Fold this sequence. Notes:
Helix content is 18%, strand content 42%. The strands form 2 sheets. Strands 1-2-3-11-10-9-8-7-6 form a 9-stranded antiparallel β-sheet. Strand 4 and strand 5 form a beta hairpin.
Amino acid sequence: MEENKIVVQDLYGNKVTITPKKDGSFEKVTQTNNQSNFIFMGQTYSDGILYTSKTEKVYWTGEHSERKLVKDMYGRLFHYRYDEEMRLDGPDREDILWTFVESEEKSDELAEFSGLFLLNQPFIAGNETGWMCVHENVDQKYIDELLAPPQEPQMSLFQKIVSYLKLY
């Protein structure tokens, strides 16, 4: 499958790797940093947009860990998890995860789990280094649009008239 990967840049210059899956869909992974915008589920996101999400429900909040259900500016729900591990031998470790959920009930289910179980696509993960990794599934239509040659913008009637007049 390695040779079937497509690597492109998104609208914001982030590296995007698309890998075919056995079911005919594709996994899209965007690598970015917390200073850049990126595309997620067809919308522009950023670290700032995620952190301005409205808290809908708190599962727990501690000094070094929190878990909650949040709603972003697009109306999407995310199960948010933050964990910090204090280290004496170097920088603290932070794990940040926004897992898209379709309902409060799905978030409630995730509140009972930890670790890799929370990596249900689509999700956005970040850490203390400032790097973020965005995972989602896309379909063939998305791939076709991504790989299509750029379209020339349609000229307005005004632009056509001006262009014609410039000839004389």
